[in-house]
Write a structure and sequence with these properties.
This protein is an all-alpha fold. It contains 16 helices and no strands. The longest helix is centred in the last third of the chain and has 29 residues, at 273-301. The chain crosses the membrane at residues 38-62, 74-95, 102-124, 130-147, 154-175, 195-211, 276-309.
C-alpha cells in the first residue's frame, strides 16, 4: 500500500481516506515492533530490523500494510546521528587514511556487476542492459534512477535490488554475529557518548534541516546523510552534545524493517517466480564473491576482515551500517565503504554501462 502525502483534508493524494489508512499504519507498526521484540529476546544480531521485516511481511501476505509516512525518515535521522557520533577525531583520521582502500573496494564492488549480470540475465531472462542494473550492488533508489536514465526496466531493477537487500539482511548479520569478534578494532572505535535530551533534540532538528536540501536535489538517503555529516563534524571536533540512546536506534531498526516488509506483499512475491529466484541466486553468488575479495583485501592492507566483509557486502547502506553498530564491527570503516560506493555508483555506473555495451560485455 502506498504511503502518499495528504492534500490537507481528509483524503490522501492516492485517494485513500485518512481514517482507513491510519489503523492500517498503526497495526503494521505494532506488528513490526512485536516481531522485532520477539527476535530481540533471542539475542539475534539486528533483531529489531529483521523481526520487524518478517512480521510485516507475514501481515502483508494476508492484508494491506502501510507504515507511518514519517517513520522511516525519522528513524534514519537518528540512525545518521548515531553513526556519525562514532567518528571521533582519531577515528576520522584512521578512516581518511584508509581512503585508497575504500575507493578500491567501491570500484571492485561495482565491477562485479559485469560478472554477475550475465548470470542474472541468463536466470531471469531479461535483456542484458536491465540485467546489469539488477546485478550491480548499488542502493535500490540509486540503481532505479540510473536504470530509468538508461531506459532499462525500472520495475525489474527495483524488484531485483530489493530482493538482494533482503538476502543480505537475512544472512550477513547472523553469520558475522556468530563468526566475528566484537569490539576489537581500537583505532576505528570511539568511546560511547552519554545522551542528553536537549542536545540530542537540537542535533535532530539541525540534521533534519540539513537533510531537506539534500532531498530536494535528489540525493539517495538524505535523511541519514545530512544528520550523519553533522554528527561527524561535531564528534571529530569534540563538540558532540549527546550520543543516541539504544532505544532510538532500535526504533530506527523497526522503522526500516517495517518499510522493507511492506514490499513483500503476496502480489510482489508471486509476480515473477523466475525473477525472484534469479535475484536470490545472483545475490548469493555476489555476496560470496565480494566476501572472498574483502577477505583478500583485508589481508593485503592489514584491516579487520569482518569490517571489510561488511563494508563490501552488497546490502543497503543503512542496513549494513546498523549491522556494524549492532555487532561493534568498526562502524566508521564500514560506513566509509558504503558512503564511498554510493558516490562511485552515481559517478561510474552510467559510464561503465555504456562502455560495457560498446565492448560487448553486456
Amino acid at each position: 500500500m502506498s504511503t502518499g502525502g495528504f492534500d490537507g483534508g481528509l483524503t490522501r493524494r492516492d485517494g485513500l481516506p485518512v481514517l482507513r489508512t491510519l489503523p492500517t499504519q498503526l497495526l503494521t507498526t505494532g506488528t513490526a515492533t512485536l516481531g522485532g521484540g520477539l527476535l530481540a529476546l533471542l539475542h539475534l544480531p539486528l533483531a529489531w530490523m529483521i523481526g520487524a521485516m518478517l512480521a510485516t511481511a507475514a501481515l502483508a501476505w494476508h492484508r494491506p500494510v502501510a507504515v507511518l509516512p514519517w517513520a522511516r525518515p525519522a528513524g534514519l535521522v537518528f540512525l545518521g546521528l548515531g553513526l556519525g557520533a562514532t567518528f571521533s577525531g582519531p577515528v576520522l583520521a584512521a578512516v581518511t587514511g584508509s581512503l585508497p582502500v575504500l575507493l578500491a573496494g567501491g570500484v571492485i564492488a561495482i565491477a562485479t556487476g559485469f560478472v554477475v549480470a550475465r548470470l542474472f540475465t541468463r536466470l531471469a531472462g531479461t535483456d542484458p542492459q536491465t540485467g546489469f542494473f539488477c546485478a550491480v550492488p548499488g542502493g535500490v533508489i540509486v540503481m532505479a534512477i540510473l536504470a530509468q536514465e538508461a531506459k532499462a526496466s525500472v520495475a525489474t531493477v527495483t524488484l531485483a535490488q530489493t530482493m538482494r537487500v533482503l538476502v543480505v539482511v537475512l544472512t550477513f548479520p547472523p553469520l558475522l554475529g556468530w563468526l566475528a569478534p566484537h569490539g576489537q578494532y581500537g583505532e576505528f572505535m570511539a568511546p560511547r557518548q552519554p545522551f542528553w535530551w536537549p542536545g540530542l533534540l537540537a542535533m535532530a532538528a539541525a540534521g533534519l534541516a540539513l537533510a531537506m536540501p539534500l532531498r530536494r536535489v535528489g540525493l539517495a538517503n538524505p535523511w541519514m546523510l545530512g544528520p550523519c555529516g553533522l554528527a561527524i563534524g561535531l564528534a571529530a571536533t569534540g563538540h558532540l552534545p549527546s550520543g543516541v540512546p539504544v532505544l532510538l536506534l532500535n526504533a530506527a531498526q523497526v522503522a526500516m524493517g517495517a518499510s522493507l516488509g511492506t514490499r513483500l506483499s503476496k502480489s510482489f512475491l508471486l509476480s515473477s517466480h523466475r525473477l525472484a529466484l534469479a535475484a536470490v541466486l545472483s545475490s548469493a553468488v555476489l555476496s560470496l564473491l565480494l566476501a572472498a575479495i574483502a577477505w583478500g583485501l583485508a589481508w593485503l592492507v592489514g584491516l579487520p576482515v569482518p569490517a571489510l566483509i561488511l563494508g563490501m557486502a552488497p546490502g543497503g547502506m543503512p542496513e549494513m551500517a546498523l549491522t556494524a553498530k549492532a555487532l561493534e564491527l568498526a562502524v566508521p570503516l564500514v560506513l566509509g565503504f558504503h558512503l564511498t560506493r554510493t558516490v562511485l555508483c552515481n559517478l561510474l555506473v552510467g559510464p561503465l554501462h555504456r562502455a560495457g555495451l560498446r565492448l560487448g560485455l553486456l
